Amino acid sequence: MSSSINLSSSSPSTISLSRSRLSQTCTTPIIHRVALPSNHQPSLSIKTTGKVKVKASVISREDDLLSYTNGNAPIQDPSQADSVSLGTLAPSDSANAPPNGFVADDDDYELDLPTPGFSSIPEAIQDIRQGKLVVVVDDEDRENEGDLVMAAQLATPEAMAFIVKHGTGIVCVSMKEDDLERLNLPLMVNHKENEEKLCTAFTVTVDAKHGTTTGVSARDRATTILSLASRDSKPEDFNRPGHIFPLKYREGGVLKRAGHTEASVDLTVLAGLDPVGVLCEIVDDDGSMARLPKLRHFAAENCLKIVSIADLIRLGLCAPLHIFYKDV
């Protein structure tokens, strides 16, 4: 059986699937559609043939990889495998893993079918491309949290107000190392001194110097995020400390680290946008972290797509050689 996904530049956002698992009508969307600049008209084609079963095992070859077992216990030895068992993904035997760390064989998984109860990754990509927010959920054995995610270059005051209202208020921006170095944004602490549970790579916090007041309002945060996403920004364009928390993205994305930091950038890149993503954890009405099924209810109530990092990993495992992206 063959399945295909197409994102075409012939219209602001088009997508075709061989079948759809989610149909939702939203009469009052929270975030309005954003028109992309003329120089951002991507064409993305993903195609896979046959039925695929995915087993994920990331082999550490870099010193900064922190691995976790299913019991959430850290593995400090970087030579050990980082087993990714998100959703229905089963960890593979690392001893038998191929050089790239992944194996795939025949089974009942099809690329365009998400994990039950979730939207598909192509649906999320479509919304990200239009400047909308999506909910991204990780594994229950990891943080067991859902984050609001969007493309940084399409940030708006309205989106920031929604994020702050429903999130922790700690608004983060995931960025690649080259951009962090260009803007002179060092890590808060180096890897060896990082005692955060999942070793999240926080940099110094920032506010934009121009076009902001205190830096804390929704408009000021949007301005700062847009400045971080701009290729023209310079180190002197930011005050330190500030109210926005840049994060260092791990190269290799969710195939290397199954976190929201990596998922936000991966989704943005798949949408044909610059590799800078916005993310913030969602909280319940009582201030506690929102869990499933409340995250699903929240997404449905606000007409947001909800996707799992497990499905994003599957996309990367099933079709890494079938993704063709170019500006047209």
CATH topology: DHBP synthase
Q: How much strand content do the residues show?
A: 25-35%
Structural class assignment: alpha+beta
Mean pLDDT: 74
Overall geometry:
globular
Tell me the radius of gyration: 19 Å
Q: Helical element count? A: 7
CATH class: Alpha Beta
Uncertain residue ranges: 1-25, 27-35, 41-109, 321-328
Percent range of helical residues: 10-25%
Total domain units: 1
H/E topology pattern:
EEEEEEEEEHEEHEHEHEHEHEHE
Distance between the termini: 30 Å
Description:
This protein has 328 residues and is an alpha+beta fold. The protein has one domain (2-327): Alpha-Beta Complex (DHBP synthase). The protein has helices at 121-129, 157-166, 177-182, 218-229, 260-270, 294-301, 309-318, and strands at 2-8, 14-16, 42-49, 52-59, 67-68, 74-75, 81-83, 90-91, 102-109, 134-137, 146-151, 172-175, 206-208, 238-248, 276-281, 305-308, 324-327. The strands form 4 sheets. It has a 7-stranded mixed beta sheet, with helices on both faces. β5 and β6 (74-75) form a beta hairpin. α2 crosses α4.
Key terms for this structure?
7-stranded mixed β-sheet; disordered N terminus; DHBP synthase; 26% strand; alpha+beta; disordered C terminus; 328 residues; 4-stranded antiparallel β-sheet; 7 helices; globular
In short:
The chain is an alpha+beta fold and 328 residues long.
Structural topology:
Layout: E1 2-8, E2 14-16, E3 42-49, E4 52-59, E5 67-68, E6 74-75, E7 81-83, E8 90-91, E9 102-109, H1 121-129, E10 134-137, E11 146-151, H2 157-166, E12 172-175, H3 177-182, E13 206-208, H4 218-229, E14 238-248, H5 260-270, E15 276-281, H6 294-301, E16 305-308, H7 309-318, E17 324-327
Helix pairs in contact: 2-4
GO biological process, one term: riboflavin biosynthetic process
EC number: 4.1.99.12
Family: In the N-terminal section; belongs to the DHBP synthase family. In the C-terminal section; belongs to the GTP cyclohydrolase II family.
